[in-house]
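lol so apparently i was supposed to do this last week
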Amino acid sequence: MKLIVTGGAGFIGSNFVFYQRKHHPEDDIICLDALTYAGNLETLEPVMNDPKFKFVKGDIADRKLVYDLFEAEKPDYIVNFAAESHVDRSIENPEVFLRTNVMGTQVLLDACRKYGIKRYHQVSTDEVYGDLPLDRPDLYFTETTPIHTSSPYSASKAAADLLVLAYHRTFKLPVTVSRCSNNYGPYHFPEKLIPLMISRALADESLPVYGTGENIRDWLYVEDHCAAIDLILRKGTDGEVYNIGGHNERTNLEVVKTILRQLDKPESLITYVRDRPGHDMRYAIDPTKIHNELGWLPATKFDDGIRQTVEWYLSNRPWWEHILAGEYQNYYERMYAGR
Ligand code: NAD
Ligand code: TDX
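anyway here it is w/ nicotinamide-adenine-dinucleotide bound
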């Protein structure tokens, strides 16, 4: 089997590449990634010389480049992680979110139609369901919860989901969609909540908590997400949407305090700052469908996962320090110019 993994130099995509090499060493992987600010080739260094792995620098919205790649490689599976993924950036500048998340997805779908594939998998998010109120802990997102987005980011992801499902209905393209809750773990870009708080706490800097910190996220260890996508890709049903989450709801404040305890830093570092506009209150996934149909269950409890994650950031300082210093962006040219 040959897989194209788009966005494989980002947080979840890189973890998925490593998961595939470990669990399906017979498969060939091509990573297509534009190396935006969020893409880091240093992350993929362990597989760069692997004969079953190939890296291609390119934009999923570049039709010619994508068609040429499909023509040359004739992939069986496509897993689309490539996206602009940060809600705050989408509030600042929505345009690139539409280009990559919507138009880029459309180019990939067209390439799948033109060249034929076994399965296209769209990596989506629970944010397409909007949010749940804090006073209704009995409510969860299911696959039939209406799409109801809050940010330009989630609107662009929802648009992409609808396109993917439309290509299934109209053109019979074999597709699946997964909607996962918040991920955490190794290689998480240090402007997202958990790695941001770890790196700032280590430097004894203030920890900016938006609003009151009561917003709830449903955290899933990244490897559990990768295992779920792998199952859906290989055993899921065409045209279906699968929710992925592990019932690990925490307020942002709880998450930040857990990190501070583990690092033995004082809670006085917490600073309440202006809230995110349109800030979603609570996300909570009902994962019954993927459990019943594909037997998926998360393996990592939040308390273990967050401990491992903090330890990972402590023992991989150069990885995130290069990002904070901006050095990682020269890495591709430095290491791969003329290679
Ligand atoms: P990320 O921002 O860490 O990585 C995105 C990757 O996509 C980067 O390597 C970047 O260079 C690449 N990319 C961006 N634009 C591109 C383009 N036009 N062409 C090719 N590559 C491009 O994101 P992430 O957190 O790893 O998220 C991956 C996917 O999972 C996204 O689709 C996101 O919506 C979804 N998701 C993320 C979470 C989460 O908690 N992080 C949860 C659910 C779903
Ligand atoms: O400095 C901060 N302070 C703060 O209070 C940051 C960066 C975030 N927050 C809050 C906002 C959210 O309630 O923490 C929560 C998590 O924020 P993010 O890490 O930005 O994630 P979120 O907005 O929940 O979106 C994430 O999960 C769903 C991913 O970035 C998305 O790509 C995914 O679809």
